[in-house]
């Protein structure tokens, strides 16, 4: 038994499947999958769900959001190429 009288949880091996979603295509990243979709649409949600189902991924461990050019300012000023 661990400190505090609690049983430690068994460790599960996590499968890594980095996935990105964006309006503009990006250069390929080895070991990752990129979707060119508008994340606010049901089409995007369906594409993500199909990807998860095809890899037998029940959930993502981390969701990282870098911000939206539509919120921060004009896309042409914020986009990098």
UniProtKB/TrEMBL annotation:
Source domain of life: Eukaryota
Protein name: Uncharacterized protein
Organism annotation: Lolium multiflorum (Italian ryegrass)
């Amino acid at each position: 038994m661990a400190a505090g009288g609690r049983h430690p949880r068994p460790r599960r091996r996590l499968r890594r499947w980095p996935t990105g979603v964006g309006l503009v295509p990006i250069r390929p990243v080895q070991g990752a999958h990129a979707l060119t979709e508008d994340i606010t649409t049901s089409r995007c949600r369906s594409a993500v769900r199909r990807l998860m189902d095809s890899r037998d991924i029940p959930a993502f461990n981390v969701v990282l959001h870098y911000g939206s050019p539509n919120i921060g300012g004009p896309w042409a000023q914020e986009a990098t190429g």
